[in-house]
Amino acid sequence: MASLSDYIESYLKLLLSSVPDEWVEIRRRDLAERFRCAPSQISYVLTTRFTIERGYVVESRRGGAGYIRIFRLGAAPGSDALEVVREAVGDAVDRKAADDLIVRLVDMGALSPQDAAFVRAAVHADDGDRRPELDGIVRARVLKATLLFVLTQPTTE
Amino acid sequence: MASLSDYIESYLKLLLSSVPDEWVEIRRRDLAERFRCAPSQISYVLTTRFTIERGYVVESRRGGAGYIRIFRLGAAPGSDALEVVREAVGDAVDRKAADDLIVRLVDMGALSPQDAAFVRAAVHADDGDRRPELDGIVRARVLKATLLFVLTQPTTE
DNA sequence: AAGTCTTTGACCATTACTGACCTTCTGCAC
DNA sequence: GTGCAGAAGGTCAGTAATGGTCAAAGACTT
Questions:
Q1: Phi, psi of B119 (to 5 degrees)
Q2: What pLDDT is recorded for position A157?
Q3: Per-residue pLDDT tens for B45-89?
Q4: Does residue A7 lie within 7 Å of nucleic acid chain D, judged by its CB?
Q5: Is B100:B53 a contact under the CB 8 Å cutoff?
Q6: B4-41: b or e for each residue (b if 16 or more CB lie within 10 Å)?
Q7: Which residue, among A48, A68, A43, has the nearest Cα to A58 in the 3D structure?
Q8: Which of A89, A121, B47, B82 is the 20 to 30 Å CA partner of B153?
Q9: Coil, strand or helix: which one is B61?
């Protein structure tokens, strides 16, 4: 049942839970050798399992002494707020859709009114500045980024 | 964090933070000897890590009493990160400029490595989907909005 | 049978590092 | 002052060692 990708995913999550920090560093080549697979398989696991929507951020460097770092964000992995965001925000979003999503998240209890105000301000910050035709695209990207950022922050209470 | 260049970079930044002034003076040959590497390696580190985009200026002189001076620009703790962002982000930015700014903010202590990875992921989300000539503009707006949001977000610390 | 997820490999892009060769500066002999 | 030798740092192309991308094939579900 469990595929190789599942094993690699489990291994990485175990690694993450075994270190005091919120991130781990791996070498794609080494990991591929450990699991006897092609290096691109590691990339596949990372892009399908360690996405922002699932509460992870991956950064890497090529070349000599290259590496891959996996950061775990402070999200509750079960939260369906992330799923709502992912579904609601496509390539472009108009003002109303953005505001609707923010209201919906507040209603869900996933977003505090304060955070909602912050997000709304960031999303509408420079509407129509120079290239109005890009507003929808920029709005979508900023909306997604700020929402994911807020939703994945460790809760302070 | 394993390459020799990384160590040399760290050493120089440590040196910078250990002196009262905003600059240090080194000798390429001596530094190369200390790290057991070719002198050109020092030049490599300086041109890749101590660029103006990352908040440094390097000046040097050849010949008998040659030297290399590294100046740090407004990266002292307490300087205004928001101001740096506004100055650095114009109407359009390329990938490297975006990355350099993020590195600089981490250098300043204004951004945690996690948040940096997050912003980087948001900014480089899906480059090149649309007309490529618009990427720089979208990137600039997303970068600015996301950074301003993250930097002004009430932190939990 | 169709669709989705997994896995691979060929090819590409990026980064680190070196050494041969070039340019610039100082100091000294004259 | 001139000329020259030595002692810096600069440049650049080449090599090696990574990770990324993507189309295609394979495997598994429905």
A1: -60, -40
A2: 43
A3: 999 999 999 999 999 999 988 999 999 997 556 668 899 999 889
A4: no
A5: yes
A6: ebeebbeebbeebeeeeeeebebebeebbeebebeeeb
A7: A68
A8: A89
A9: strand
**Tokens matching residue B151:** 């930097």
SS3 sequence of B124-144: CCCCCCCCHHHHHHHHHHHHH
Asked if B3 CB < 7 A from strand D, the reply is no
Listed by start position, the domains of chain B span 4-72, 81-152
Q: Could you give the percent of chain B with pLDDT greater than 70?
A: 89
Which residue numbers of A have CB closer than 8 Å to B's CBs?
Answer: 22-23, 25, 52, 57-59, 64-65, 67, 69, 71, 73, 91, 118-119, 122-123, 125-126, 129-131, 134, 137-138, 141-142, 144-146, 148-150, 153-154, 156
pLDDT tens per residue across span B107-131: 999 999 999 999 999 888 765 455 6
Question: CATH assignment of A4-72?
Answer: 3.30.56.130
Evaluate if the CB of B128 falls below 7 Å from strand C. Answer: no
Q: Report the SS3 class of residue A71.
A: strand
